[in-house]
């Protein structure tokens, strides 16, 4: 996520920097996209992934509610 926040990238570009296959990166990105934490735009045939700040705002709000409900 930190890498995508700094530099939007394709799955292939991310896979070159990670000790996993491109297929594994694609599967992770798919789940992150379903969770609204990343989004992709098309640059020709390439899907370029970016962090979705709005999704992280929603996640932060949810985490805050969980923490408040767990407090004694």
Structural commentary:
The protein is 58% helix and 17% strand. With 72 residues, the protein is an alpha+beta fold. Strands 1-2 form a two-stranded antiparallel ribbon. Strand 1 (38-43) and strand 2 (46-51) form a beta hairpin. The longest helix has 18 residues, at 53-70.
CATH structural fold name: Arc Repressor Mutant, subunit A
Percent helix range? 55-70%
Mean pLDDT: 93
N- and C-termini, Cα separation: 32 Å
CATH architecture: Orthogonal Bundle
Low-confidence stretches at least 5 residues in length (pLDDT < 50)? none
Helical segment count: 4
Radius of gyration: 15 Å
| N-to-C order of helices and strands | HHHEEH
How does the overall form come out from the CA principal axes?
elongated
Largest sheet: 2 strands, antiparallel
Beta fraction: 15-25%
CATH class: Mainly Alpha
Q: Which sequence of strands runs across the widest sheet? A: 1-2
Descriptors for this entry?
single chain; 72 residues; alpha+beta; Arc Repressor Mutant, subunit A; two-stranded antiparallel sheet; 4 helices; 2 strands
Write the layout of secondary structure elements.
Layout: H1 2-6, H2 11-16, H3 22-34, E1 38-43, E2 46-51, H4 53-70
Antiparallel strand pairs: 1-2
Q: What's the quick description here?
A:
This protein is α+β, with helices and mostly antiparallel strands.
């Amino acid at each position: 996520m930190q890498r995508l926040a700094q530099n939007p990238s394709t799955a292939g570009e991310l896979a070159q920097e990670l000790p996993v296959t491109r297929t594994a990166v694609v599967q992770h990105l798919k789940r992150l996209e379903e969770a609204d934490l990343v989004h992709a735009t098309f640059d020709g045939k390439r899907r370029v992934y970016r962090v979705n700040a709005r999704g992280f705002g929603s996640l932060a709000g949810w985490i805050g509610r969980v923490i408040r409900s767990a407090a004694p």
